[in-house]
Amino acid sequence: MARGGGSQERLRWSKLYTFACTRPTVLLDDEQPHSLQGPGYSRIVHCNQPGLHRKKPLNYPTNFVSTTKYSIITFLPKAIFEQFRRVANLYFLLAASLSLTPVAPFSAMSMIAPLAFVVGLSMAKEALEDWQRFMQDVKVNSRKVSVHKGEGCFGYKHWQKIRVGDIVKVEKDQFFPADLLLLSSSYEDGICYVETMNLDGETNLKVKRSLEVTLTLDDDVAFRNFTATIRCEDPNPNLYSFIGNFEYEQQVYALDPSQILLRDSKLRNTTYVYGVVIFTGHDNKVMQNATQSPSKRSRIEKKMDKIIYILFTFLVLISLISSIGYAVMTKFGMPHWWYLHPDETSYIYNASNPTLSGFFHLVTALILYGYLIPISLYVSIEVVKVLQATFINQDLHMCDGEIGNPAQARTSNLNEELGQVDTILSDKTGTLTCNQMDFLKCSIAGVSYGLGSSEVEIAAVKHFASEASGTSEQHSSTQDFWEDSKGRFGSSEIEFENGNACKVEKPQKPAKKSFSFDDDRLMHGNWKKEPNAGTILLFFRTLALCHAAIPEPNEKTGGFTYEAESPDEGAFLIAAREFGFEFCKRTQSSVFIRERYSPFEDPLEREFKVLNLLEFNSKRKRMSVIMRDETGQILLLCKGADSIILDKLSKNGRIYETETIKHLNEYGEAGLRTMALAYRVLGESEYSDWNTKFLKAKTTIGPDRELELEQVSDMIERDLILVGATAVEDKLQKGVSQCIDKLAQAGLKIWVLTGDKMETAINIGYVSLVAKDNILTQITNASQMIKLEKDPNAAFALIIDGKTLTYALEDDLKNQFLSLAVDCASVICCRVSPKQKALVTRLVKEGTGKTTLAIGDGANDVGMIQEADVGVGISGVEGMQAVMASDFSISQFRFLERLLVVHGHWCYKRIAQMVCYFFYKNIAFGLTIFYFEAYTGFSGQSVYDDWYMLLFNVILTSLPVISLGVFEQDVSSEVCLQFPALYQQGPRNLFFDWYRIFGWMGNGLYSSIVIYFLNIHIFYSQAFRAEGQTADMAAVGTTMFTCIIWAVNLQIALTMSHLTWIQHLFVWGSVATWYLFLVVYGMSSPLISGNAYQILLEALGPAPVYWAATLLATLACNIPYLAHISFQRALNPLDHHVIQEIKYYKKDVEDQHMWKRERSKARQKTKIGFTARVDAKIRLLREKFQRKVSTVNVQAQS
């Protein structure tokens, strides 16, 4: 295949770029390859000979990648281990084993079958969820790429079939299937553009270059006889380093990271590249940064284990009491009970050896009282969580209408954790931002242009205007401004007493993509009428010329689209075009722009000769281009961070500095990203002298080359003249601001962990600390500063880069670092590696002891997603690595609000109430068995029929509790979103703290006492039938069981706040099922029903005392709970109690003032998010207003 023929392919970028992709034109004699000796440098790759790597000693892995938790071999042992990590399952395994012995009070099948069902169902759910992960792995592994098959022929192969040594051809906008060494590209000098957003979060394109010796490998046929050997470092997780040698045609060439193309990065702005596979499968650097899929358990489940321990201790205690009582009865009572034939002894009944009999009875009691520990709890929770996950998956409010991606609960084990999150750790690029910049304002020659306003400005000014006019309510909430700002709000103006006005406007016409600027003073050629038209012209030309972008004709629009290295650059070029300065062509030595000074004039094409390009990097924080215009004048045009540019101005270049700094501060307050523009005119001799030094530094070989280039660049980038500044809006994804605001109001802390550069993540000056002692001092000083701060509205943000973070995460510093971070309103970690993201997540999780949630969209986020208590992946248009490693996936960040504030709140409360209720009903039921056994001389006799006991948890009380866990809503989803502070009930653990748990246990104890002793007292000494018969054990047991069924089902009905027809059906249907069972069971043969034959129809049904006892016991059990909740609602109501009453009495409709007041109270005070920024803006406007009033008063008095 011949090399592609686009104009961009003919450019030799090494002639333009200074730092990133140059190769010296002169090879020095002392140039040496890397020394690759010692451990860690043993990898050998035979290029174009993949078969050699399948044999020993190499035997490299395939390119198959798996993110599943289990494999076919490990599923059974790992899944069984997961199940018996649960204490209750371990207990029932022991009980099932003991049921095989003669001392068991029940049949072995009645113990083994429920355990097998519970464990089997849970394992089946785990298998299903892991199967879904496997299918997503298959989807990725089945992608195709062009691979050399021999004799210069290429064909497509699945990613998973690629081997080390394969030659692959990757085409534009495709992901790299493995870690590759770049051999050549569609550009003549082997340059290619790579987007690494999936790896490090950076949105600007990286320039990669091949070795010069492989440039001739420029088409398919060239690989017919190609062979070479690569010796390099072993697989490791470092994304930013690579050491190796390339042996080709008896020469050895040194390799560095600029030749390496990493898996999951994407080829951009380049038609194709050829590369050789170095690392495959789990050896590639992305997978080296991933950790093994962890087994996560929710906090409620862990706490359940502690409750099980408590109940098991109680079970052992009453079993000991029972066995001691039995031993005493055996020794002292049994010899006198002639009807028991005490002379017929066994090891179970032996009056001469009561200790042994007591021991065997201990085993019997442990099994008999096992109903205290609910075996069906876990399986019921599994069913409930699966149904909850189904509702999450089917929530249309979390489905992206554009791409049709719904939310997905990839594991249902952690539903309730969504309601207990304390800290969110988020990636930035792709997760919060949509990688799009909007040109909004600019400052030129000390004059600010642009009438467009940010959402913060609009909301703040509208609020302040309403206050100034006296129409604002005292407790008005800024959350209502979201709706206002979404409309086409024109302008708000506050007129002060002296006639001055504060005006904020929002463009009413639709904004163009990346250009929301609106100011007629600069548009349509009107800029020529401005006093400083010459400076404005220079400003526009700087926007159009100072970049490294490539124009590509757009056949649909007839214009150009720009392949820029960063979104900022693209926004500047679009802005320049809208102002009349269209960048239209680039050649090897020139840039062409079409200048149109008036809409009625034809554009004039101008050529500017590019002499040098000093590109942007994170250390320089600026970019310069040196060019010669059509008059022969040499200009240096520079753009960069304002803090850098302002330091490089000449004395004569600071004319507009004061006003420009003022505008920069205003733009910063509005949340805009700023950049300063400056220029310098160069003389011929000055440029010639500098260029000689520059070329010498450019061709230097060695570690000092970068430093020399920077020093030479600094020599020319000085004595600049300030032109102006730009302000662009970093477009967040749809709804991100609202989402962050609601999450902040819900009391959640938000950390941003990004691979982006510092200046991309935050627009403030920053000094990087590299000495460990300095870091400790800085942390100490910062902590002291926060403690001494007296302003209650002061908000501190901690910003730290990856290099500093390396020290901060060491054992002797990490606790101080965490303490400082927790005290700050927000934390931003920049330039952090995937491993560091995971380490920070672990530090927050273990250091605070609270629930953490990590959210991201790329492969670089996998580590922190797996490390966090809850991992959320964004299923956007990029790779699916984050989704495959996540517990939940959503298509946009904004859906996190509903996932947490609605579903998280519901799931937490449902599971908490469900677990508490489960322990209540089992204690109420299980203790009656103990009371009866004590009443019958600790004989081991159960008062209930075996079928009753089997049906209690499986049928008669299972569906109501499942309906509680699935359908319960304390408030509706709309109210959850309106009252975000309700979410704090989860992190504060209001519904599953020890007070509430022991309260429910106490309720169960009380109910068991009432039911047992009330029934025994009623039936003990009086006839219950018309014929005068007294009750036998079957009648008493059935009546007690009826009371239990009524009491626990009425209790759950009282617990529910949201009763649907399904819940009514399950609750009252369970009661009806009990009576139906009694009828059917009683009608069966006495061989089956035994003493329960016709128990309801003939014995209990006609007896009024049976119905009276049921009614009395049911009311006696539930009246205390009813009194408790009535007292609580009247005197100490919880937040949702107040809201429920407001909604019930429709006060939210009748009294809007009260409703707004309550909504305002239901916001956690926060220093981050939209609301906090609006409040800060309001305070600034108040200060301005007060200064104006003070000035007017002074003038009036004078």
Automatic annotation (TrEMBL):
InterPro entries: ATPase_P-typ_cyto_dom_N, ATPase_P-typ_P_site, ATPase_P-typ_TM_dom_sf, ATPase_P-typ_transduc_dom_A_sf, HAD-like_sf, HAD_sf, P-type_ATPase_IV, P-type_ATPase_N. GO terms for cellular component: plasma membrane. Residues 883-1133 form the P-type ATPase C-terminal domain. The keyword NAD does not apply. It is found in: Membrane. PROSITE patterns: ATPASE_E1_E2 (PS00154). The chain crosses the membrane at residues 111-128, 307-329, 359-379, 918-935, 947-967, 997-1021, 1033-1053, 1065-1084, 1104-1123. It catalyses: ATP + H2O + phospholipidSide 1 = ADP + phosphate + phospholipidSide 2. It is a multi-pass membrane protein. Signal peptide: none annotated. It comes from the Eukaryota. One of its GO terms (molecular function) is magnesium ion binding. ATP binds at residues 427-429, 569, 616, 639, 673, 754-756, 831, 837, 860-861. The active site is at 427 (4-aspartylphosphate intermediate). One of its GO terms (biological process) is phospholipid translocation. Residues 45-112 form the P-type ATPase N-terminal domain. Its cofactor is Mg(2+). Its EC number is 7.6.2.1. Mg(2+) binds at residues 427, 429, 857, 861. Keywords: ATP-binding, Magnesium, Membrane, Metal-binding, Nucleotide-binding, Translocase, Transmembrane, Transmembrane helix. Gene3D superfamilies: Calcium-transporting ATPase, cytoplasmic domain N (3.40.1110.10), Calcium-transporting ATPase, cytoplasmic transduction domain A (2.70.150.10), HAD superfamily/HAD-like (3.40.50.1000). Belongs to the cation transport ATPase (P-type) (TC 3.A.3) family. Type IV subfamily. This is Phospholipid-transporting ATPase. It comes from Musa troglodytarum.
